[in-house]
Structure prediction request, 205 residues.
Amino acid sequence: MSKVIEKTGKTVDEAVEAALLELNTTKENVKVEVVEEPSKGLLGIGSKPALVRVTLNDNRNEIINEFLTKMASLMDLSITNKIEEKEDKIAVNIEGKDLGLLIGYRGETLEALQVITSVIANKNKDNFVRIELDAENYREKRKETLENLAKKKANDVLKYNKNITLEPMTAYERRIIHMALQDNEKITTYSVGEEPYRKIVIKKV
Prediction:
C-alpha cells in the first residue's frame, strides 16, 4: 500500500511542500489531491487553510533501475536491468558485458549492492519488499558450485571420519550448504564464528 498523508497550509503549494518535506521526496514521486481550497472567510472570520492529500507513488521498479544504472555507470559498465515482480520479492537480473567487477569476489559486491538497493527501494514505503539481485545468472552458478562442494566434503567426512570446516561464507551461501546436506542422515552441519567470518562445519553423525 502506498503511503498517504494529509497536510494543511495557507496555500495549496505550502501544504504540498509540507507533505513533500515529511515524505522526504519530490513532487514527481507523488500524487496530489486538493481536499479543500483555502478560504479567507468574511473579514478574516471563518478562514480555512488549504488541505491536500498526498500519495507517495510505489515506484520501486523505477527507483531500482535508476540506482543500479547509475552505480554501473560509475564502474564504467553498461547494463540492462530485467525487473520482475514476484509474489514475495522483486527479482532483478542485471545483464551486460564484463560484470565481474559488479559481482565481486564470490559475489560480495553483488551482495552489498543488493542490501543498498533494498534500503533505497523500500525508503518511505509502508510495506517492505525483498529485493533479489543477480548478474549473469551468477547466483544459480554459485548455488550449483556450492552444492557440489557440499556433497564432496560430506563424502570426505565419511571417508576420513574427520570434521571439515569450510571457508567463511555469507548467510545465503551457508543456507545452500545446509540445504544440500539436510537429507544426508549420516551428516550434520552447523555454523561457527562471527560475521563476516562465520563458517560451516560438516560433521559425521
Notes: The radius of gyration is 26 Å. Residues 140-204 form a domain with the Ribosomal Protein S8; Chain: A, domain 1 fold (CATH 3.30.1370.50). The chain has a mean pLDDT of 91. Residues 39 and 53 are 17 Å apart (CA to CA).
